[in-house]
Amino acid sequence: MSRIAILVPGKIHERVLERLKDRFEIIAVAREQKLALDGGTAGRIRGVAVSGAFPGAWMDQLPDVEVIASFGVGYDGMDVKRAAEKGIVVTNTPDVLNDEVADTAIGLLLNTIRDLPRAEAWLRAGNWKPGTAFPLSRFSLKGRHIGLYGLGRIGLEIAKRLEPFKVKISYHTRSRHSDAPYDYYPTLKELAEAVDTLIAIVPKTPQTHKTIDANVLAALGPNGVLVNVGRGWTVDEEALSAALASGALGAAGLDVFYEEPSVPSGLLEPANAVLLPHVASASVPTRIAMADLVADNLISWFEKGAALTPVPETPQKIQRD
What is the pTM for the complete model shown? Predict the structure, then answer.
């Protein structure tokens, strides 16, 4: 009896392939505008393991696909509307990367406020000599009021990590969290006006596009700090570059950018910006856990008829004839 065929378009963590190869037939193809699949092969594919976007046009090439397992917590690159119309389950990898991203957010915040990367670079360049000292950092975490733009799973983990620093914590989301012990602000602008530090951890949606704009940055002010570990989509990078260059904003720490891996020169040049190449979840243990969840979603779907972590927009259980 032939094994169930699983499509893998482009690259994916090698552990996914290791976990799947003994149970399924793996069909690997390049990422192209149209998948290089003949009709017979496309008709045999019932599942997908993917890292990155999966457009609706690809779904239309796969008449019998049942489940698409995505490597990542964000699934804005998935055409979930088209998947739902076709009865396809889409899964992601929530929770397994919450701690890593939250830890990175705190590290990025401290590095940005205390200017630690530049201090290390100054030392490595041989500048620390008798009678010399690295300049005092302009800012301190002590006494800050931190606003969280987003209070989902990762946002809550960031908040928990901030509490021992004895800072004030507030947040803005679309609706108030009744059980959250932090002050709620109904708009992002109001949050920015109240706080001096803003940590963004919201997904890429039409509602979050460039919401951190010149007005929000001006509200944070010259002593304000922006940290973004969510999506570059959320920030107006031209406005941010201008604010950093003029001093209208004190500093920024960014792990994500609007058009990765392209980083605007206006963000590369300012000394008051700390930049990371989208590494918030990039540790070996976390990526292994993400890969395992991708594989486990596919295995559970075909063995039990239900995925472990389906996204809410698509079907939750098996719908086979």
Answer: 0.93
